[in-house]
Structure formats: structure tokens, C-alpha cells
Backbone:
């Protein structure tokens, strides 16, 4: 059969569209149906508004506060990275942007290892002052939630705003100064308006993240703080009020869609974070005077304290134990425990199983998301003038993983096939989380290939499939690797949807960490630290590899 | 001589070990337009940026009407600088761009409005006031940039390659408009360009720059008629060059592979008999002749003849293998023998060692 280019695009486009209909539209439809069919009985119960309003208000409050504080922290950092050259800049930049890809459970574990009741700070104070109980109780407060959010948000803010600032032409500001503008007016009238777009996208992005925050709240906030996500989870798994969970999901979706729509509305930013943006920078210079040197030293000290310390704290906490005399001792026992079932109990979560599951899920996600993303991005080339791309990216992006998990739970648990092999649902859910990112990485790469290359190949007798195989795929090899690795990392760290879908006998690493950290005993705590540390290392290594590919791509 | 309004004294600037400006002394009179002419990397843009206050000189001083302004911050100088790529503010309309300078200088709103109208009239862009600058064409952007630069009534106007970003046809047209505007404005102006034709048509005087030094400064005519060095002659496009040897003074005579040439009066006094020289023949006064004389003639065969509208550009292959270019009024058959008469005034000589100088 001979297919024209148009037919090829169309047929290829059908595959991801069918996938989205089955695993995205359908589950969401079931949520809607659940929410609206039970709506009247819920309204009659009277306290519905209270049940919706209280988590909604808290969700908005903590997200708003987090975003505001992120501006305060992020602006000086974005300024510093876009204006100054200094020793080890690459390392510092990696440190400040690493949180972006860290799984929430790892971040929660890292902060726990620093300021938790068995964390370094409390250990230190108890040793020095011979206290019986940990003196600092910062876990389960709004403060630690905000701190963890800023930890995440800043990495996005510095990437987006810092990159935009570095690429901003310096001439406009110089022109303003020759026209008589002082430094303050220059910033206020020229720099800030020119950065406005990137600031808005960065803030929308972090608001979206904080608004749908689940792992951070559950692990660090404790039982008293309920965001919409946590409330949906509680209503589903503990109170079994699926109707209320559905209603909360619908409300949450409405708000996240709105934010994503604003985020992707502006075509210039594309609404997504790019990896290691091109830093050609005319304003880069060494600090010129004492004032600038002091600023830079203060900035980098803060950076190390805030962005490096938690990871190091996690690493070292996984290597110490407290002996019977209350003294700290070096140990690798927690790592050894990870690889053997020493206790043999039934409730025991085998760490090895968690490793195996996580990697299997991540590899499967990488494969499905990579294939579907490539097909979708290639198919979308043909529709590049329509809003189809935006819709395909907005929809899954604007859906929180908890909502996705709920939808899957409601839709597929009764299906015989999924009852037989419930494990397949997890990588499918992970694929939905990763797909927007993969498409967004690949689409620009496909678009960058001049149409005439394909025309020339067709002129030389290549069929549409041969063109895809011989021209497009070799040219997008590196972006595909970046997208696929990103899918891998996302799957490894995914917590929201997974917490709905995994059976106790198929835990993933994040689920295992969550369970260990909530179980009493120093061994469980130590194991949580050790496993979080391993997850951290895998993710960090993947990011470095990703940036290596990205750098190579830039140079060619 | 009148008191200069701008004076530069030994302005010098290094960047990471290389010298960008190697001691510049310069004076500018009221109402004078000075062209800084030089190839890219010659230091002309650096000089402009130091004048504007965007960069600091390492040593040397800048005086404005007798006052030292070397340390005055950029926003206090009120020197208008038109950037090479215009640097229009993309988030503002044409009118807002132009109003920016007057607003920074604290003008009243109605004065600003009048000034915007006035400058738009000067650059013939009255209808563009509310347009977004990103929607303008290259030529329109250039004129808005000029309007924005002159809006706050700068004491000194500086233009950095103002026609550099335009294509050839637009360059000729807007160059004419720019010259008229500069004549009307009567502001002392420094105009940076790498294009000699542009420099000669715009400048009251021209300073030739290379390697951070002013190599020659003077009226356009004197620079064209007597380039001060072999490098300048080459930069001005005099490509007809012959190795020569000095064989006599009063009148000065040189000998070449192609015969002897007698030169007109003003020679560099340092030149002596037996010096090795480079003879440069300016092509515009060269004419074909039938008779043969003992000197100031070259003979060759027609190698190429191109129709150029207002005449023909001919290439003559000479006996020593080099090619000589000149303009002629008629087509010549290829391969035909032709003798040219070289007037004394068309001959320039430079010491041959200049060819080995570092800046050649």
C-alpha cells in the first residue's frame, strides 16, 4: 500500500490519540461521572462547602506564599548567575537546578535528615546539651512545607528567569542609560518589562507545582495539613468517599487547566523549562568591586546552605547510627539491609523488590513515552499551525498525578485484564505524566529540521516511513535521549499516581521510602535514608547525563 | 582656531592583554561632523563607547567644553548614541521609545509630546507614532532610533554604523536622508563607519583608525588625494601597486619593471634616491593614448572589460604579470594592446618597508 505524507501523519497521529482516549479521557470521564452523580447527596449532607473550602483555601494559601517567597530567593540567584563569572560556576548552577528533577520523597527525606526529630540538627543539639528529646520540632509545620517548596521552585525560577536574563541583549539597557536613565530606572523601565514574560511563566509553573503538591505535604506536613491532593488521597484510601474525592478532583482540574492554559498561551516561552539553556551572555563579568564580591559570597553561601546541605545531610545520615551510649557511629548497615531480607516478616517491604519494580517501571515508561512521544511530535509537525500541540501538552500537564491515580483506580480496577496484571497500570500512568515533557522536547527538534531535507529525500525516492527512519530519527537522536531519560527520572520518582495504584506486594522506591520513614525505629529510618540516597544518586547522574547530551546537541 | 567642544587626551584602553585603544588624541569643533573610519576591530566602536560612558578608559581624559568628564556616569552626559542594531525598546511603541529620553531628563508631559511629534517630523515618520517597534522594517527602525537619540537634545551625537544593518539600496536612500538631517541639526556629531564612501560623503573631517590608533585625520579630499600610508591607500581601495626604486629628486623620478615615472611635487621628505618604494597609481585620471612617450606610461593587453552602466571597467594585463584596473568610456576587444598615460598627480609612493609593517 502506498501512503501519502498526509495519510502517514494522520495514521501515526492516531496511535497517541487512541492512547490518550483510553488512558486519559476515559478515566477523567469516570471521575466526572462519579462526582456529578453523587453531587446531590453530597450537597444534602450539608458540610460539603466546608469539606471543599478548607483544603482549597489551604492549597491556595500555601501555593501563594511559596510563590511569593520564591521571588525573594530566586531573583538574587537569577541575577548572580546571569551577571557574574566565578570559579566553579557550573557546579553551583547544577546544585541550584538539581532539585527540579529530584523526586519529592527524596527531598522530603533530605529535609527530614536535616531538621527531623532524628535529623542532624536535633542529634547535634541533643549531644551538646544532653537532652533526652529532640528540641526542634519543625516537621509538620507550614514552615517546612514552604521551605521544601522554595527548594523546588527556585530551581525552576533560576533556570527560566536566569536564562532569559542572560540572553537579554545588553544594548537596550545601555541605550536607556545614554538617554539619561539611572540604574534603578533602567531596571524598572527596561529590564523588568523585558523579563516579564519569563517571570510570569516561571511563577505560573511553580504555582502549578505547589498547587498540586502531594509528596511534600504528605511526608513533611503530616496529618494536619490537607491540600486538595492530600484530601483526595485521604478520601479515597481512608474514608472511601469516592464521590467527594471526585468532586475535589474536578475542582482541582479546573484550576490547574486554567493555569496551564495561561502557561502555554504564550508561544514564545513554550511554557516549559529547557535543559541548560544556551548561555551566550554579553553581561557576564567578574565581580568588579568589593560590594559585588560581598554580594556574590553571600549568595553562594546561602546557595550551599540551602541547596547543597540537605543532600549532603541525607548522604551522611544514611551512614551513621546511634549506639546504646547515644554516640554516633559510622555504619554501612542500612545499605546492607537493603539487599537482604534479614527479618523475613510478612509485612516487611523487600527493598530489592522495590528497586526491581522501580527500574522495570521506569524502563517501560521510558520506552512507551519515548515511542509515543516521537510519534506524536512527528505527527504534530503536520498540524503545527493549529493549537493541537498545546492541547495535547496542556491536558496531561494540567492533570495532577493524584487525579490520574484516582481516575485509574475508578476505571480500571474492575477490568479483568488489569486485575490479572495490575502492575501494568503504573507505567501507563507514569507515561501520561512524562508524555508532555517528551513531546515538548522532541517537537522543537523535529521542527528544526528543514522541510527541504524531507522534500529532497522524497525527491530521491524515499517513502514517508523511510524519511522518518533515515532523515528525522537520526537527526533527533539526542533530543530523544534527553526526553526518554527525563521520562525515566519522572517515573523513578513518581509518587502521587503510584500511591493509588501499587499493590502492597509491588512497591516502588518512593513508596518504600514513604513507608520506612513512617515506621518506628532507627533501622527503618536509616533504610529510608539509604534508599532515598540511592534514588538521589540515580536521578542526579541521569540529569548530568541528560545535560551532557544537551550540551553535545548544542554544539552540533 | 576656535576652542574645541570635545577634546580627548591620550585615551588608552586594554582588554585582556590586547590593546584596543593605543592613545587617542582628538578634537571636535562645534557643528562639526567627524567620521571615524576603520575596519572592524580598529577600535572605533570602543572609542564611541568610552565617549558615551558605557566603558571606562584605562588612562587619558575626556574634556567637554574644557571640563573633565572622564568619570561622569553615562546617564549624566547627555551624549546621544545611536546603536548599530538600534537597541529599540521592544516593549514600547515608537512614540514611547522617543519619549524615553526627554522623560528621563524630567521634561513636562506636553513638552515631551511636542518633542515626539517634532522628531518624528524630522525623520519623516509622522504616521508611525503608535506603531509597535517590532513591526517596523529595518529602515523604519533606523529612523526611529535616530529620532530617539536626538529627542532629548543631546549635546553630542554619536552614530555607530548607522547604515550598517541595511541593504545596499536602502543604504543609499537613507544615507541621503541622514545627511540632510545631520545638516539641519547642527549638533557636533561623531559618525562611525567602515565604509570610505559613506565617511567621505558625511564627514566634515575624517579620522582613519586602525589598531587603536588614529593614522590620519583631515578633510575627506585631502585624505583621498594623499593617503598618509600604504595601509590607508590600500584601505581606500587603491589596488594598482607596483614595486619601484627612487632614481632622482627634483623632479622626483622612480623606475619600475614597466618604465620610469615622474611624480608631482609633495613627496615625503624622508625619501632618498635608491630607496625601495611602492608606487600606487590612482585609476581615475588614467587615459588610453596612441603616442608613446619615454615615461609615465604603461602598456598591456586587455584582459577583461565589464560594462558598468556609466562606463567600462577594464583590466589590463601588464608585462610583469600584474593586472591594472581603470575606467574607460568604451568597450575594448579582449587581447588588444593598449597604452595608458599616467598623469603625475595620479602617482603616489610609499616606502616599500611599510608593506612589512605590522599593520599592513
Residues:
Amino acid at each position: 500500500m502506498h501512503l501519502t505524507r498526509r495519510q502517514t501523519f494522520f495514521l501515526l497521529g492516531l496511535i497517541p490519540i487512541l492512547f490518550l482516549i483510553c488512558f486519559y479521557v476515559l478515566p477523567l470521564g469516570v471521575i466526572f461521572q462519579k462526582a456529578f452523580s453523587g453531587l446531590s447527596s453530597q450537597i444534602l449532607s450539608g458540610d460539603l462547602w466546608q469539606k471543599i473550602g478548607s483544603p482549597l483555601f489551604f492549597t491556595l494559601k500555601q501555593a501563594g506564599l511559596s510563590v511569593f517567597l520564591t521571588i525573594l530567593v530566586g531573583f538574587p540567584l537569577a541575577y548572580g548567575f546571569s551577571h557574574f563569572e566565578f570559579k566553579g560556576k557550573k557546579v553551583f548552577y547544577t546544585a541550584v537546578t538539581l532539585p527540579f528533577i529530584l523526586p519529592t520523597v527524596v527531598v522530603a527525606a533530605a529535609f527530614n535528615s536535616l531538621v527531623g526529630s532524628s535529623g542532624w540538627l536535633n542529634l547535634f543539639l541533643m549531644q551538646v546539651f544532653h537532652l533526652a528529646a529532640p528540641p526542634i520540632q519543625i516537621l509538620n509545620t507550614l514552615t517546612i512545607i514552604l521551605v521544601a517548596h522554595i527548594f523546588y521552585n527556585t530551581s525552576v525560577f533560576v533556570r527560566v528567569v536566569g536564562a532569559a536574563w542572560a540572553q537579554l541583549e545588553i544594548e537596550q539597557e545601555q541605550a536607556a542609560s545614554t538617554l539619561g536613565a539611572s540604574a534603578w530606572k533602567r531596571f524598572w523601565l527596561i529590564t523588568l518589562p523585558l523579563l516579564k514574560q519569563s517571570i510570569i511563566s516561571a511563577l505560573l509553573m511553580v504555582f502549578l507545582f505547589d498547587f498540586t503538591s502531594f509528596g511534600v505535604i504528605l511526608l513533611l506536613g503530616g496529618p494536619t495539613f490537607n491540600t486538595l491532593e492530600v484530601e483526595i488521597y485521604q478520601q479515597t484510601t481512608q474514608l472511601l468517599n469516592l464521590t467527594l474525592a471526585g468532586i475535589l478532583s474536578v475542582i482541582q482540574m479546573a484550576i490547574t487547566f486554567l493555569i496551564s492554559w495561561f502557561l502555554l498561551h504564550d508561544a514564545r516561552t513554550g511554557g516549559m523549562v529547557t535543559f541548560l539553556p544556551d548561555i551566550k551572555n554579553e553581561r557576564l563579568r567578574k565581580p568588579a568591586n568589593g560590594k559585588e564580591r560581598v554580594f556574590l559570597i553571600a549568595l553562594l553561601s546561602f546557595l550551599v546552605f540551602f541547596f547543597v546541605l540537605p543532600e549532603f545531610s541525607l548522604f551522611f545520615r544514611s551512614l551513621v547510627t546511634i549506639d546504646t551510649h547515644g554516640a554516633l557511629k559510622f555504619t554501612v548497615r542500612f545499605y546492607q539491609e537493603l539487599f537482604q531480607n534479614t527479618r523475613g516478616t510478612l509485612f516487611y517491604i523487600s527493598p530489592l523488590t522495590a528497586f526491581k519494580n522501580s527500574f522495570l517501571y521506569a524502563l517501560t515508561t521510558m520506552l512507551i513515552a519515548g515511542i509515543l512521544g516521537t510519534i506524536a511530535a512527528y505527527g504534530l509537525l503536520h498540524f503545527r499551525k493549529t493549537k493541537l500541540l498545546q492541547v495535547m501538552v496542556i491536558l496531561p500537564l494540567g492533570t495532577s498525578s493524584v487525579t490520574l491515580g484516582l481516575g485509574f483506580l475508578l476505571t480500571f480496577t474492575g477490568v479483568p485484564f488489569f486485575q490479572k496484571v495490575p502492575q501494568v497500570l503504573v507505567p501507563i500512568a507514569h507515561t501520561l505524566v512524562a508524555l508532555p515533557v517528551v513531546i515538548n522536547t522532541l517537537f522543537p527538534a523535529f521542527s528544526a529540521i528543514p522541510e527541504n531535507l524531507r522534500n529532497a529525500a522524497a525527491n530521491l525516492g524515499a517513502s514517508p516511513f523511510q524519511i522518518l527512519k533515515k532523515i528525522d530519527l537520526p537527526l533527533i537522536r539526542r533530543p530523544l535521549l534527553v526526553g526518554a531519560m527525563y521520562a525515566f527520572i519522572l517515573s523513578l520518582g513518581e509518587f502521587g499516581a503510584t500511591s493509588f495504584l501499587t499493590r502492597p506486594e509491588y512497591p516502588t522506591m518512593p513508596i518504600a521510602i514513604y513507608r520506612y520513614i513512617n515506621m518506628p525505629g532507627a533501622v527503618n529510618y536509616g533504610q529510608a535514608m539509604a534508599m532515598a540516597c540511592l534514588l538521589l544518586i540515580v536521578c542526579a547522574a541521569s540529569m548530568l547525563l541528560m545535560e551532557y547530551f544537551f550540551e553535545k546537541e548544542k554544539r552540533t | 582656531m576656535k576652542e574645541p567642544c570635545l577634546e580627548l587626551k591620550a585615551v588608552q584602553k586594554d582588554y585582556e592583554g590586547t590593546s584596543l585603544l593605543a592613545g587617542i588624541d582628538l578634537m571636535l569643533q562645534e557643528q562639526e561632523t567627524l567620521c571615524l573610519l576603520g575596519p572592524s576591530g580598529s577600535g572605533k566602536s570602543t572609542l564611541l563607547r568610552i565617549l558615551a560612558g558605557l566603558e571606562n578608559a584605562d588612562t587619558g581624559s575626556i574634556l567637554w567644553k574644557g571640563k573633565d568628564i572622564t568619570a561622569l556616569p553615562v546617564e549624566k552626559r547627555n551624549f546621544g548614541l545611536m546603536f548599530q542594531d538600534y537597541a529599540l525598546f521592544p516593549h514600547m511603541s515608537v512614540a514611547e521609545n522617543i519619549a524615553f529620553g526627554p522623560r528621563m531628563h524630567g521634561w513636562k508631559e506636553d513638552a515631551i509630546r511636542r518633542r515626539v511629534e517634532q522628531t518624528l517630523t524630522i525623520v519623516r515618520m509622522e504616521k508611525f507614532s503608535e506603531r509597535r517597534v517590532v513591526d517596523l522594517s529595518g529602515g523604519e527602525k533606523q529612523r526611529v532610533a535616530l529620532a530617539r537619540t536626538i529627542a532629548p537634545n543631546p549635546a553630542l551625537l554619536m552614530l555607530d554604523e548607522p547604515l550598517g544593518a541595511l541593504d545596499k539600496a536602502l543604504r543609499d536612500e537613507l544615507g541621503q536622508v541622514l545627511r540632510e538631517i545631520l545638516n539641519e541639526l547642527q549638533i557636533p556629531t561623531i559618525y562611525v563607519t567602515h565604509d570610505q564612501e559613506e565617511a567621505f560623503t558625511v564627514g566634515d573631517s575624517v579620522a582613519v583608525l586602525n589598531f587603536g590608533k588614529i593614522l590620519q585625520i583631515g578633510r575627506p579630499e585631502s585624505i583621498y588625494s594623499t593617503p598618509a600610508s600604504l595601509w590607508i591607500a590600500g584601505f581606500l581601495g587603491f589596488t594598482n601597486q607596483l614595486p619601484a626604486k627612487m632614481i632622482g629628486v627634483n623632479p622626483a623620478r622612480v623606475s619600475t619593471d614597466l618604465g620610469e615615472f615622474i611624480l608631482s611635487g609633495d613627496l615625503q621628505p624622508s625619501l632618498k634616491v635608491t630607496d625601495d618604494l611602492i608606487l600606487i597609481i590612482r585609476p581615475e585620471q588614467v587615459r588610453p593614448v596612441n603616442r608613446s612617450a619615454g615615461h609615465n606610461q604603461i602598456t598591456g593587453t586587455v584582459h577583461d572589460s565589464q560594462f558598468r552602466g556609466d562606463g567600462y571597467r577594464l583590466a589590463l594585463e601588464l608585462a610583469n604579470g600584474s593586472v591594472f584596473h581603470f575606467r574607460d568610456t568604451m568597450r575594448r576587444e579582449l587581447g588588444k594592446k593598449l597604452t595608458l598615460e599616467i598623469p603625475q598627480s595620479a602617482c603616489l609612493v610609499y616606502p616599500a618597508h611599510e608593506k612589512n609593517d605590522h599593520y599592513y
Notes: The first helix of chain B runs from residue 44 to 52. The mean pLDDT of chain B is 88. Residues 233-356 of chain B form a domain with the OB fold (Dihydrolipoamide Acetyltransferase, E2P) fold (CATH 2.40.50.140). Chain B has two domains: 6-232, 233-356.
